[in-house]
Write a structure and sequence with these properties.
With about 140 residues, the protein is mainly α. It contains 7 helices and no strands. Helix 1 packs parallel to helix 7.
Length: about 140
């Protein structure tokens, strides 16, 4: 009996670009994944907070979604760095196919590292600006 083959490149892509809404989690584990739903629920919560508190900085009202996006970038790194043999043993043991991820995963990892680290640094800088100077620098 053959089960569906979980593609590591597609999973990494989903984590990079749609990790904030948990697409990579739903792809790997299905619609019953609690962590995937936690990612997804951050969108309406952040939108409600932004609507209910318009005088607050959007950085703070959207912080749950921002953390979810950064977690997706981190998940992309952890997924993409798993060797193909371990990936197949974990997700494709019964599929009958072997994974062969190439340079696409490497490029996705570089993009994830660039955007994730840059986003984290920008988030820290803006948070300190808002907390300690009242937003004097922007």
């Amino acid at each position: 009996m053959s089960t569906s083959h979980k593609n590591k490149t597609l999973t990494t892509f989903l984590a990079v670009f749609f990790g904030g809404i948990g697409a990579h989690r739903f792809y790997l584990r299905g619609m019953r994944d609690r962590w995937g739903w936690l990612h997804l629920v951050t969108v309406p919560i952040s939108l409600l907070a932004m609507a209910a508190l318009p005088e607050q900085q959007q950085l703070f009202t959207a912080s749950l979604f921002i953390v979810s996006v950064l977690a997706g970038m981190l998940a992309a790194l952890t997924i993409g760095l798993v060797p193909d043999e371990k990936w197949d043993a974990r997700y494709n043991a019964a599929s009958g196919k072997q994974s062969d991820s190439g340079w696409t995963v490497v490029l996705l990892l570089m993009f994830s590292l660039l955007v994730g680290a840059g986003g984290l640094i920008a988030l820290l800088a803006r948070t300190f600006d808002l907390l300690y100077t009242g937003g004097s620098y922007g």
